[in-house]
Amino acid sequence: MLKKKHDMFCRQECYRATDVKLPANMHSAWGVGGTQPDPAHNRLLDDGTIVPLGKPVQNKVATTLLYNEFIVYDVAQVNVKYLLQMKFNHKY
């Protein structure tokens, strides 16, 4: 889930696993993957949270990451609300 208010100004987008240095004005990194939930099926909650839903689709950007991931460098910023167990069936 993404909070709409944090979309552009607080986190750094990265497209390679080697992008590990975070700029001083950012608090986290968004690893943009080659596979992502279909944005056409996103849900917007009343508090502005965007919940990605839908079947995986190929992202149109060039990236070496398989899927979207969020990297937080300060664990004090993490507040686990949901825990998911997933099984990946890769075709690779």
UniProtKB/TrEMBL annotation:
Naturally occurring in which organism (per UniProt): Heliothis virescens (Tobacco budworm moth)
Domain PARP catalytic: 1-92
Record carries keyword Magnesium: no
Keywords recorded for this protein, A-Z: Glycosyltransferase, NAD, Transferase
Protein name (record): Poly [ADP-ribose] polymerase
Catalytic activity of the protein: NAD(+) + (ADP-D-ribosyl)n-acceptor = nicotinamide + (ADP-D-ribosyl)n+1-acceptor + H(+)
EC number: 2.4.2.-
Source superkingdom: Eukaryota
GO CC term (a single one): nucleolus
A GO BP annotation: double-strand break repair
GO MF, one example: NAD+-protein mono-ADP-ribosyltransferase activity
Pfam families: PARP
The keyword Calcium appears for this protein: no
